[in-house]
Amino acid sequence: MASKNITHASYTVPGLTLKDGHQVGDKLQMRLHALNDLQLTLKHAHWNVVGRDFIGVHEMLDPQIDQVRAMIDAIAERMATLGVSPNGLAGALSKARDWDDYDIQRAGTAEHLAALDQVYNGVIGSHRDARAAVQDLDPITEDMLISQIAELELFQWFMRSHLEDSQGTLDDAGARTEKGAAAKAKGKGSTKK
């Protein structure tokens, strides 16, 4: 007998209706996808960054990757606690996402950091949207998302500190895409003192 593909349990956490618990869990699925994509993107940059500041950036990325992986686990476990089956499969991520692949390959530190700054803009913005969507339904999930947003913002600041001049202007200021940010940073990186 073939098993049914069950994505929602017949329970949720005490204090939430089944509908609200499952709604919150479903909202977390895109956070799971976004963070899975982020950790893969960070690892890709870790492998492909080159240049004079290589080792500092290479080593800065590893703890971020580890922390993002911990966030992924927390989100998946919260979903399961809420009675929603988390889907961390690559095919599901690729099918559900509305953003493009990171496509900066072998590039200098400024280029990768500027592109990653754009990635963090997207992940943090969508995390904030998810926090707002669950705030009236589940303060536990909201608290988890707030904590993750704070960590993600700190990681972005680490990146931006490499891109910022003494006047507080980022090398990728005004860029709207990863490629655009990388190109802007590449052009400014050679003259930055």
Keywords:
mainly alpha; two-stranded parallel sheet; 6 helices; 193 residues; elongated
3D structure, described in words:
The protein starts with 17 loop residues before the first helix and ends with a helix. It has helices at 18-48, 54-81, 90-96, 109-134, 139-163, 178-189; strands at residues 49-50, 107-108. The mean pLDDT is 94. Helices cover 67% and strands 2% of the residues. The protein has 6 helices and 2 strands; from the N terminus they run αβααβααα. Helix 2 packs antiparallel against helix 5 (139-163) and helix 4 (109-134) runs antiparallel to helix 6. It is an all-alpha fold and 193 residues long.
Biggest sheet descriptor: 2 strands, parallel
Mean pLDDT score, rounded? Answer: 94
Number of strands: 2
Terminal Cα separation, in Å? 68 Å
Using the CA coordinates, give the radius of gyration.
Answer: 19 Å
Give me the secondary-structure topology.
Blueprint (H helix, E strand, L loop, with lengths): L17 H31 E2 L3 H28 L8 H7 L10 E2 H26 L4 H25 L14 H12 L4
Parallel strand pairs: 1-2
Helix pairs in contact: 1-2, 1-4, 2-5, 4-5, 4-6
In short:
The chain is mostly helical and 193 residues long. The protein is 67% helix and 2% strand.
